[in-house]
Amino acid sequence: MIKKLLLTLFLVLVQTVVFSQNVGDYRSNVTSGNWIVLASWQYYNGVSWVIPSGTSPQGYPGQFTGTGAVIIQAGHTITMGTSDLATATMGTLTISGTLVLDGGSGGNAGGTFTINTQNLIITPGLIPYANINFANKVTLNLPTNVSIQVGEGGLPTPGNGICNNNIEISIGGNVLAYCSGTGSPAAAYTFTDVINNGGYNAVKASMSKTSLCGSSSFSISAIATPSIGATIKWYTVPSGGSPIYTGSAYSSTISSTATYYLEASYGTGAGTYTTSRTAIEVTVNSVATKTWNGSSWLPNNPTSADKIVFNGNFSSTADLEICSCEVTTGNVIINKGHTLKVNNEVKVSGGSLKFENNASLVQINDNTTNIGNITYMRSNSTTRETDYTYWSSPVTGQILKNVSIKTPSDFFYSFNAVVDDWNQEDSDNTMTIGLGYIIRGPHYETIPPPGFYEAPFQGVPNNGSVYVTIPSLGRETSNLIGNPYPSALNADLFLTTNSSVLDGTLYFWTHNTAMGIGVSNPGTGVYAYSSDDYATYNLTGGTATRIGNFVGGVEQESNKPNGKIAAGQGFFATGKVAGGDIIFNNSMRISGGALGVNNSQFFRTAKSSKTKDAIEKHRVWLNLTNSEGAFKQMLVGYVTDATNDYDDAFDGESFDGNQFVDFYSINDDKNLTIQGRALPFDKNDEVTLGYSSTIAGTFSISIDQVDGILTSEDVFIEDKMTNSVKNLKEGAYSFSTGAGAFNDRFVLLFTQKTLGIENVGEFDNSVLISKDKNELKIKSELESIKRITVFDLLGRKIFDKEAVNSNEFRTSNITLNKQLVIVKVILANGKEISKKVIY
Asked: In CATH terms, is domain 767-838 a member of 2.60.40.1220?
């Protein structure tokens, strides 16, 4: 059994062997002789060396059981050969000359020799080499737990010239090495392997460092010989203690020299054999310190391997990449678009460290701890009191009200996924890392013109792994989470890392257009918006919430999510039924890029830049608009790894955040604001489109953008109601509609269809919704009413009535005063109609 096998093999270049004589010892007596010939040996009887008598205990070595040591002296050759031989137990066998194992010749060549010694020494450092010479298909058997000490050239190595035919070495019945041939069973190791691995039933460690910068990220790997059945454990103490890791490779990070110990064990229970522990030392290279004195770097400019210390005022002129950072005095400012990239910790022990809007702090090491507060500024385009922005804190210790100090205290919210509703937050609460919050715009005595509001975040910058629990409720959940870092986040990596917990689409709230006051059909009330909505993003791409991204094929100011989640940004993600913990970590963090564009797309935001996709994508973005400013965008893309079924990584359901219109493709009975389709692109593919509207009137469907091969393909819209087809590459398609939901009117095509023409009347706007004194009144002239739901502008459900089963309904059970609400009516035929009412 391997668990009983102990072979310690040393490659020793210089060793002096002293042979002390005891009764029963043997030594070779001739320069050349046969093992079983008595005259080849001398036996020590306690007085002198004599030729063995041949009667017990004096025979050739191993003829009779004994404990005497045996030595083949330098310059002597002793041969075992012509027939198999198995010795009785003997003491240590030392070979200072040559032992020849000869299997004979001819068709009967091949011998098996068993030497029953617990210690075999092939004396190193001699010229010529002491050795065992294997000849003619020889098998050497050694007992379990034998210890072998061998010098250079002492045992055969495959291809070294003394190795021929099927030479085999077996210890305790386990084949250790073949010199040539494949054999059966095959050897797991040659003696060269064993020497390189430090012995048999031994374990050896090697180390690689992946970072040298004050702290070292390292990986230690182990080789156990034999590897089969070996369990490797790592310790921080030479004996006793509990293992810190079990496995063949251990990785960690240290800031000072450390020693680790490893052992390998075989078997279980009472039969377990464990090797002695082997030590390996992991060192850390020293780190140079470069100091800013207020005017220059001393002794010279820092590199990525250096620690920097600020002892004076500093204003960045470019990116900085360094090992660690400390501010002791002075006001340090990382300006807009610049990145401070730090391998390890950031420490503010004095002075101040401020990051302007779109600046970035990127850290590499997840296991370092920051000390002291920074200030991180994030600009938001809102100044209107009625606007809401989705925030997340990039620092620890941020108080909610300090994000928008002029916002009334009752307009701070988080989202409760358990009850699927908004939760009003105390404005004095500390923001939880990784969660999102919505905060209404600041209140001003005199309303300023539209512009940017800058939110200050003050606290210890977040670093390393951040976990957020997604509840398991037996259903999918809406979760308001957020980027926890003072740098942008790679959305693709975040989504793929958390694909077992989250559906693959992120939703970013925007309010990108002016209020609807003064337009002919803005909805109802002074706070009616023309287009509030969620911009969406998944691995297929992103959809915008306003028109005008491209003019004449040239990109303009864009609000399509670009896959870079800005610092301070909150967003919605849909949790899967099973729930679980999502993780943010430093591997997802990205630098600001040129001019900080990677960290600039904050919703609401200013310009950002296009990004290059790492996977094949051929996409078309379609806009649904009207002349009064209603807008909704959807995306269909042919993408690597997507299928034509629902894929949560590539398909994103509509969040239905737009209060006036929704526009989507339909697949597997889901309304998708983003739909990924399978490659290769098929010109005959057809995609069903749907829309809903609270507005009756004229709308247009147009192309916002195409990429990939769709830049050279026609894109058609089929209107099944008017039995017509329009090439959208030639212009927008205009149509008339009533209010309601329509999921079977339009189809997206990529090849022309020839259709007949039918006379089809317009949709009859047959549902009337109004307020009569303190009552909400709903009347349907054609279909009975199935369900009525009322929402406020925060999306909160404030009234719900199922199984109405009547053409008319009244209620006074809505306790609101002069607020705008959305009334959603579902008819018996499944049609959905939504209208806005001042209640």
From this structure: yes
